[in-house]
Structure formats: C-alpha cells, structure tokens
Amino acid sequence: MNLPEVTRQASPWVRESGPHGDVVLSSRVRLARNVAGFPFTNRASDVQRQELLNACRESIFQSPLAERLIWVDLLESSKQDRQILYERHLISRQHSHGQVPRGVVLATDESFAIMINEEDHLRIQVIKAGLQLDDVYAKADQIDDLLESRLEPAYSAKLGYLTACPTNVGTGIRVSVMLHLPGLKITGEIEKVRRAARELNLAIRGFYGEGTEAVGDFFQISNQTTLGRTEREILRDFQEGVIPQIIEYEHNARHALAERRSTLLEDRLQRAYGLLTHARLLSSEEAACLLSYLRLGVGMGCIPGVELTTINELFVLIQPAHLQRIAREKFTGDERREFRARFVRERLSGPPSN
Amino acid sequence: MNLPEVTRQASPWVRESGPHGDVVLSSRVRLARNVAGFPFTNRASDVQRQELLNACRESIFQSPLAERLIWVDLLESSKQDRQILYERHLISRQHSHGQVPRGVVLATDESFAIMINEEDHLRIQVIKAGLQLDDVYAKADQIDDLLESRLEPAYSAKLGYLTACPTNVGTGIRVSVMLHLPGLKITGEIEKVRRAARELNLAIRGFYGEGTEAVGDFFQISNQTTLGRTEREILRDFQEGVIPQIIEYEHNARHALAERRSTLLEDRLQRAYGLLTHARLLSSEEAACLLSYLRLGVGMGCIPGVELTTINELFVLIQPAHLQRIAREKFTGDERREFRARFVRERLSGPPSN
After folding, report:
1. Is residue A90 domain-resident?
2. In this complex, is the C-beta atom of B200 within 8 Å of any C-beta atom belonging to chain A?
3. What are the pLDDT digits (tens) for A115-126?
4. pLDDT tens digits along B137-151
5. A304–B contact, CB cutoff 8 A
C-alpha cells in the first residue's frame, strides 16, 4: 500500500499551535497493552504473531473507531513508507525496522496510532499540539476501553497491566511532552533541567525519543516507571508540576538573553533566517539547528511574517523520506540537500502552494 | 581642519566601474620625486622638513592644478582624519602615523594625491577605476611636468630620479593594479599567480599595499624595481601582458567553478548575501569576506539587484574610521560591529539615502 497524499504535509497536530505552543510542540500519552492468552511478541512464533495481529486488527476495525482508520501492514510496506511513519512520530524506530508480522492502525487525522506487535502486543498512542495532557489521556483511555471490551488484557490484580518490559508494568502508561528549549540550550541551563529530571526519575530524550539526540533543541520529557502510581498522579505531576516549571525556566532564559545580550541574540536569530532563506544546500542537521533559532526568534516576536506552525511543519518535512515523497524522486545526498534548501526557501517565503 | 562631508561616501573612482570592473577595482601610478638642494626626508631636520613642505606646498598651489585642491597638514590633523585618508588609499600607513612635518595635497575628486615628506619629498599618486593605466600614467606625467617646472628634481643623468630607497631609483614609478580574485582564491590557483608574479619580479600585496593581508580577496599587483626600464615599458607589461593574463585566469576560474560545482558555489554566494542582509553584528574581517563573495556573485550574474559599485563602496565605508565618521559617534567594538551590520543591510536593501 502507499501512504496517502496527505504525507506531503505534516500531521495535523504539527500544523496547529496548541496551548503554550511557543515552548510545547506536543503532548503524547502511550499505553502498553497485551492480550491475554498470547505470548509476548518477542517470545511468540511468527504464526502466533500473525494470529495476534489478525485478532487485534479485526477487533479494532469492528469497534466504533473504525470509521476513520487506516491499516498499514508494515511487513508489506515500502521502506520509504515505514520511514515516513517514523519521521511523523507515528511508529517507533524499532517498529519501522522490525522483521516480524506487525502493523499500525492510524487515525486518518493522525491524532492517534495503535502499533501491533511492537515490544507489546498493542501500543496505543495519542498526540495533540501544545500542552493538553488531560485531553490526550482522556482520548487514550477511551480507545483503551473500546479495545478492552473486545480483547481481554493481560492483567494482574496485584501488578496491574502486564508488559514485556518490567518498566512498563502497572499502568503501562508513558506520558511525554515534546519541548522546544533553545533558550535553556543557549544559556547552558539545560544541564540543570537534565539533573532535575534525573532526580524526579524522568527521562529527557531527543526528537525521536529513546536513544536519539536532541535535534533542533527539541527535548522529549517522559516518565520512566509506571508501577505504584496511578495514571492521574503521573499526569498531574506533568500537567501541573514539571512541565509548567520547565516552560517558566525557558521563558526566563529567553528574557535573560533578550535583556543581557539582545544584539548578540538577535544576530544569531537573524543570521539563521538569512541562511534559511538564501542557502542552496542544506543538510538536515544544519536545517534543524537554523530552524530552531528561527522558531525562537518567531516565539520572541523578533521575526515577523513567519508562523510557528510553518516552522513546526518544516521540521517534519525536511527529513529524508518526506523530501523524497514530496519530490517524487530518488535523491543522491547532494540532490537532497539542494531540494531541502529550495523547499525551505519556498515555504518561508510564502504560504504553501498546496 | 576637518575632512569634508564627502568622506561619508567613498572616493568617486570607487563609485564607478571602469574597464574590466568585474576583476579590476583600480589602476594606480605613483611617482617618487625629491627636490634638489634638500636632504632626503629621513635625513633632514624638522626645520628642513618644514622648509621643504612649505616650498612644495606653495609650488603646487601656484600651479594650474590649484583650482581644485585640498591641503591637509597631517601633523595638525586628528587621528580619525588621518585614518580616513589611509582607509581611502590616499596616504600610506607610514604617512598617517608619522611624527614629522608632513602633509598631503588632494584633488577634490580624489583622482590624485601628492604626499609631502613621506619616504621621498614628493609622492605623486593617480588612481582611476578599472584597468586604465595609460590614462593614469598620462595624468601622473602631467602633474610631474607641472611640478618640475617649479621645483628642481633630484636627478642624475646616469641613474635617473634619485630616491630615498634604492628600489625606486631610476623612473621612480610604481604601477599597481588592485584586482578582485575570489575565483582564483577558491580554486587555490592564486598560488600559481603568486609564483608567476615572483618570477616576473612583481609584488603581490594585500588591500592596503606593502605588508598587508589580502582583505576580501583583493590583491594589489605592482612592479618591484624601476631601474633600467622606461616608464612605457613597465606600463606596457602591465596593461597588455600581466594584467590581461590574470583577468583571463580569474574568468577561467569563475567559469570552472560555475560548471563543476555550480550549486556549491551558488550556495556560498547566496549564503554571503543572506548573512550580509540579516546579520546584526559584523566584524570588518567577516564583512570583507562576505562582500567578496557577494562581489563574485554579482560579477557572475547570480545576484540581481545589487551593483558592483555599491559593493566597492561598502569595502571602503565599513572600515572603522569611516563608520565613526558616518555615525558621528565614538564607538566601542560592539557598537561598531552593530552599526556596520545595520549600515551594510541598509545599503544592500536600496540606494543610499544621501
């Protein structure tokens, strides 16, 4: 199957600015679930995996969710399609590279995705723009209820939800927020945030989650363990405690930069804008770095005429698989850098043509 | 005295594009002359120097040249005025820093300058835009004749004109051409030109002549010795031999760059343009480097809407003393970098307001 034309744009939640959109790109809740009576994915045979896959897929498509769903069989998908799903944060790296029968159910508006046969049988993931974890959790909980009425979960009265990895046992929830923290990065205070997060037993990761670097000064903050605390407690910590605190730190850092070294900062931001609108070759690393400065400049009101959401979308679309999809061509590295530079220039010089 | 308001612009010959203006910024002829009956400047007492100064000044201002001349007494001039004359290539570094009675006579259109009490009693210098050495020499020769009819030159029938340094003995002529050679610099072939020049006994120097670095890929090529050859021979070598050859090398280098690595080159040129039109802080070194790329881009037709002469003028006006004169303020280093960036941005975004 081919992913629809919609992949020439970023996901809808990237193209809107949610609450605290200057700092918070997105809120995400992921629930890990397994189906009773089937071995965990990594201990199952391919026959068992296929059976589980069929059962889950049928249950989901028989549920009231079915109306606006897309099914993607990842074993049959092209490498480019899998890469695109990964670049859109709809599947994990592991799920894009796997060799076993597996798939993903997507909402047509990409507001949620259900991976089947990832580390757990089911990974329900809901994403929204900005800081709105309560809404995100409510949606995930609703999907979970709909599935549980059709698929009996692996559940222990003592431990809660059983999962392939012990760190997920209990609620099976992972709450994560994608933050844009260029101010803290420039002032060096990001290290303080890292230390504080470690003490609170939170993980700080890069743009693509586990094991990835911070691309474009984006940092994903998420809970590490789920045992012994309720979903509501974990959510409240994030929504009312940790995340507002980091947003305040980031705002303070931006203010301090603007006051102490305003010209130096404006120089950096404007140079980034100048390079993005003039370069003829752009690597993805340089583009992400420059876009981060541009996003900071727009967030601080220094660069008029550019929307935050345009920049958010560029972060997604400048990635290799997306660029090839947009160009409908196979690229060499140089061609890709050239196309990326042209694409960024055109997007920043006006509204998208489609 | 204060240098006139005209110093808020570059010299007229900088603001016009002469023959081969894409490569040749200017042609210059300098004649070294001494007045019979006075010791050389470096061997004279200050009383003798003042006498020589008065005699020369009077003779010049009694000549038909007088109508459009400015007299600048450098011992009484402000440091900023002296620096401005140096930045405009109207006096040498030595002459701007000297401690002895000395001065310079300037044509109001800055097409020539006569330094008094530099290394020699008189240094007659004529400059024009582009490659037009014959015209430049004709003018220098005319001035020389006018002065010789009033001041007897130190001259030996055997050696020719006598000068303080033996390298100038004979014709006392130095012919020099300021070339913009970014193509040869990028391809590395500038080293070949350096070697060839050494073999031809020519000097390659930087933007400010003797002992200076190549700023903005400008190279000044001049003859080294004057003994045993006539002025006409030296001129013909330059006008018909050496310089056209280097211009051809530079054109070939630009063609090769455009053909072999067109996107890479365009990327560099456009990035320079983007930075010049967006940076909020610019050091003189970075500005010169970026302006050199911009000049190359304009010369190659890649960057429309910018005139070569605008860039030529910027090379002069972004220098420290000129910037202070334009701003009418004393700057710290940071303020100067900020003012320089704003000035460059404004000049490149439209015609000068004055």
Report:
1. yes
2. no
3. 999 999 999 999
4. 999 999 999 999 999
5. no
Task: Give the type of residue at B148.
Answer: E
Range of the domain at A194: 24-254
- Whether residue B334 and residue A275 make contact (CB cut-off 8 A), yes or no, is no
A263 to chain B: which residues are within 8 Å by CB?
280-281, 334, 338
Which candidate in A270, A335, A349 is best for mutational testing of the B interface (most B CBs within 10 A)?
A270
| B5–A contact, CB cutoff 8 A | no
Long-range contacts of A7-10 (CB under 8 A, 24+ apart): A7/A84, A7/A88, A7/A322, A7/A325, A8/A325, A8/A326, A8/A354, A9/A313, A9/A317, A9/A352, A9/A354, A10/A88, A10/A312, A10/A313, A10/A315, A10/A316, A10/A317
Q: Which helix (H) or strand (E) element contains residue B320? A: helix B320-327
Q: Do A278 and B273 touch (CB under 8 A)?
A: yes
Clarify whether residues A204 and A181 are in a common domain: yes
Q: What is the pLDDT of residues A136-165, one digit of tens each?
A: 999 999 999 999 999 999 999 999 999 999
User: What distance lies between CA B78 and its chain's CA centroid?
Assistant: 21
CATH number of the domain enclosing A31:
3.30.590.10
Residues in chain B, overall count:
354
Tell whether A249 and A293 lie within a shared domain.
no
pLDDT digits 0-9 by tens, B287-313 = 999 999 999 999 999 899 999 999 999
Dist CA B133 CA B176 (whole Å): 9
Token pair recorded at residue B219? 């190279």
C-beta separation of A324 from A330 below 8 A: yes
Same domain membership, residue B147 and residue B48: yes
Distance from B56 to chain A by nearest Cα, in Å? 51
Last residue of a domain, one of B254, B280, B307: B254
Minimal Cβ distance to B270: which of A271, A273, A280: A280
CA distance B234 to chain A (A): 45
Q: Is residue A1 part of a domain?
A: no
Mutate to test the interface with A, among B280, B293, B332, B335 (most CBs of A within 10 A): B280
Give the pTM. Answer: 0.88
A57 and A174 co-located in one domain? yes
Q: Based on the fold, state whether residues A247 and A276 are members of the same structural domain.
A: no
* Inside any domain, residue B133: yes
| Final residue belonging to a domain, choices A254, A274, A299 | A254
Q: Are B20 and B128 in contact (CB under 8 A)?
A: no
- Chain A hits for B331, CB-CB cut-off 8 Å, are none
* Cβ contact A280–B263 (<8 Å): yes
Cα A125 to Cα A113: distance, rounded to the nearest angstrom:
5
| β-pair type (B24-33, A202-205) | unpaired
Do A269 and A237 lie in a common domain? no
B174 and B302 assigned to the same domain:
no
Contact: B341, A266; criterion CB under 8 Å = no
Give the Cα separation of A247 and A238 in Å (integer): 12
Does B275 contact A271 at a Cβ distance shorter than 8 Å? yes
Give this complex's ipTM: 0.86
- Residue owning tokens 């997507």: A106
State residue B205 phi and psi, 5-degree precision: -130, 180
Give domain status of residue B200, yes or no: yes
One domain, residues A30 and A176: yes
Q: Please choose, from the candidates A220, A223, A217, the residue with its C-alpha nearest in 3D space to the C-alpha of residue A237.
A: A223
Q: Which of residues 260-279 of B touch A (CB under 8 A)?
A: 263-264, 266-267, 270-271, 273-275, 277-279
* β-bridge mates for residue A221, sequence order: A177, A204
What is d(CA A122, CA A147) in angstroms, rounded to the nearest whole number?
10
Q: How many domains does chain A have?
A: 2
Separation CA A183–CA B169 (nearest Å): 65
